[in-house]
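Help needed: design a sequence for this.
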């Protein structure tokens, strides 16, 4: 190699120089810059480079650590909700059992107040019988029994029960049950003239019909008056429903 300002010499074969010129000419015809080289930031240089995990995950998904934490949080929430559901089911079952027990107790002791109200009536009746058996005073015994009956009726009235007033009333198949008829001229036909057993009402409901005897005109006294009711039904015959 020679030295000198502005001069340069090298032993380069002509075939190498021809190949270089041919390469430059091809790039010039294709529009490429002869000096273009692959820059470090080009696509080929970027291949194999480390890409952050946030870029690699598609759709904006969270990193694996955050996803696992979220899964654990949801599992804990599901377990808590399951425990609450089990506790609520147990409470409901206990409430059902307690309600059934209270209902049975209520039915079993529903008449407790009624019995307490009638206990004094029984006490008075026992005292009246004891006094009548020792003193042999039948008048006092009768008076005591009448007072006991009055007390009994008053107690029934406090609970809404009252006897039917049937004597002298027209026969009503809804309230009365005829046990027989009595020939009489002292009462209009088809009128209750005697009671075999008193009827009772509970508020507005018939508890027991009155067993009664009904008046009828004496035999051969003439034809039945116009509009007179038919013969009352006897005991055991079908009565109209209330």
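Sure. Designed sequence:
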């Amino acid at each position: 190699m020679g030295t000198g300002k502005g001069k340069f010499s090298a032993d380069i074969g002509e075939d190498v120089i021809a190949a270089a010129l041919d390469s430059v000419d091809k790039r010039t015809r294709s529009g490429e810059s002869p000096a273009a080289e692959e820059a470090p930031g080009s696509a080929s240089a970027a291949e194999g480079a480390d890409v952050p995990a946030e870029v690699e995950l598609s759709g904006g998904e969270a990193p694996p650590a955050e996803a696992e934490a979220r899964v654990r949080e949801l599992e804990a929430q599901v377990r808590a909700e399951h425990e609450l559901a089990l506790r609520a089911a147990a409470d409901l079952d206990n409430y059902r059992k307690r309600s059934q027990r209270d209902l049975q107790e209520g039915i079993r002791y529903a008449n407790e107040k009624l019995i307490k109200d009638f206990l004094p009536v029984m006490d008075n009746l026992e005292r009246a019988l004891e006094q009548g058996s020792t003193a042999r005073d039948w008048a006092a015994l009768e008076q005591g029994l009448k007072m006991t009956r009055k007390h009994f009726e008053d107690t029934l009235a406090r609970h809404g029960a009252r006897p039917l007033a049937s004597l002298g009333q027209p026969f009503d198949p809804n309230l009365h049950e005829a046990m027989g008829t009595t020939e009489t001229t002292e009462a209009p036909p088809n009128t209750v003239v005697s009671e075999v057993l008193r009827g009772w009402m509970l508020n507005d409901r018939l508890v027991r019909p009155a067993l009664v005897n009904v008046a009828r005109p004496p035999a051969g006294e003439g034809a039945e008056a116009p509009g007179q009711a038919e013969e009352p039904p006897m005991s055991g015959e079908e009565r109209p429903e209330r």
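Helices lie at 14-30, 43-46, 53-56, 64-108, 112-135, 138-158.
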